[in-house]
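Sample pair:
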Amino acid sequence: MGRRITDLVAVLGLLESFDESMYRLETLQVYDVAYERPRYEAFLAGKPADLAPGPWQVLIHGHLDAGRAVQRVHVVSEPLTDYLRYEIATSYRRSVVAGECIAIIPTMPGRWPSGIPTKDYWLIDDHDLWTMVYDDQGCFVAAEQIAEPAELQDAVDGKYRALATALPLDAYLATSHPELRTPS
C-alpha cells in the first residue's frame, strides 16, 4: 500500500492536477460530510437549493477547459435515501452544469451490479488509485493509495464497465426521478 491521507482537504488537493482524466466511483447511500450539512438540512426542510457554483465546480470547469475529463458513477439503491435525493438535486446538478460527466447505476437493496467494484475510489489518469474509506455512518476516515498492480487493473476495468453500464444522470432522472430534475 502507498500513502494514507486522513485529511479530506488534502485528498481534494490530489485532484487539482492530472493529465487526462479523473474518475470517481461512489458506492455509499449516505455520506456524512460536515461542509454539506447546512445545505442538506435546508434541502430536508424544503428550502430552495443553492445552486451557485462552489470551489469543486470551479475546479471541474478548469479541468474541462484544459481538455481533461472528469467522470463520476454512483451505484444507487432504490428507493433513494434522503441523502441521495439531496446529492442528486443539488450537488450533482451544480457539477453537471460545470461539466462533470455524472452517471448512475440503479440497483435494489442487497443486489450489486456484476463486475462493478464495491469500494469507493478515485482513479487519476488510470494509474493512480485512491480507495476511499468511510465509517458506518458515511464519515470520511482516509484515502489509501493502492500500488498493487492487480488492484489497479481491477479499478480501471471497473471504471470502464461502470461507464458502459451506467445511465447518464439526465436519463436516469427522466425515467426514475423526474422530481429531482433541473427545472426548465
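The chain has a mean pLDDT of 94.
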